[in-house]
Amino acid sequence: MRIASVRRKTRETEIQVELNLDGSGKYEIDTGIGFFDHMLTQIAVHGLFDLVIRAKGDLEIDAHHTVEDCGLALGEAFKDALGDKRGITRYGSATVPMDDALGQVVVDCSGRPYAVIKNSWISPEVGGLPTSLLDHFFESFAASSGSNIHLIVHHGRDNHHIAESLFKALARALAEAAAFRSRGAEMLPSSKEVLG
To answer: Tens digits of per-residue pLDDT, 64-76?
Structure first.
């Protein structure tokens, strides 16, 4: 079982993440931000990851630190759970429709962090959360997981649907990238024999 546990504590937040890449989609998520919890749930359910995220942050100021630090902690847990990456597929992609929205995510677990986001949010907030923070979550996750992630919204008229299509696509792309290949189980998926 590829399992990781990460605790991140700062003066602004305290985050606990437990991740099982080979789970069944079970989750316990409580960040104090309802819409964000709903999006993180999509990662567990559609990636078939067992995921626990408990966060306490300075929400009396705003949601920024909590969302950012959840992205950093979850990314670190994903990186730790992958281990040495031998035998994984490394690349994953998914395109997910959500009513009017169509989101696409392509992932490379290369060890080289980079995030590209092509999206035009319909309004500056969704579910009481600034949409800029959702983009920041993806960037934070990419940075701490050491992943190259491209997120593209092809179209959409509703912020909730746009966000949900991206989180579901991220989950499925990560699951594909983390899956073991049927051939080359001992192989590191790099011609350099190094990822990172």
So the answer is: 999 999 999 999 9
| Range list of β-strands (E), 10-113 | 13-20, 27-30, 50-57, 91-98, 101-108
Sequence-separated (6 or more) residues with CB below 8 Å from residue 90: 108, 109, 110, 177, 189, 190, 195
CATH of the domain at 89: 3.30.230.40
Q: How confident is the model at residue 183 (pLDDT cuts 50, 70, 90)?
A: confident
pLDDT at position 184 over 80: no
* pTM for this model (two decimals): 0.95
Cβ–Cβ under 8 Å, residues 26 and 50 = yes
* Coil, strand or helix at 115: strand
Is 58 domain-assigned?
yes
Q: How many domains does the chain have?
A: 1
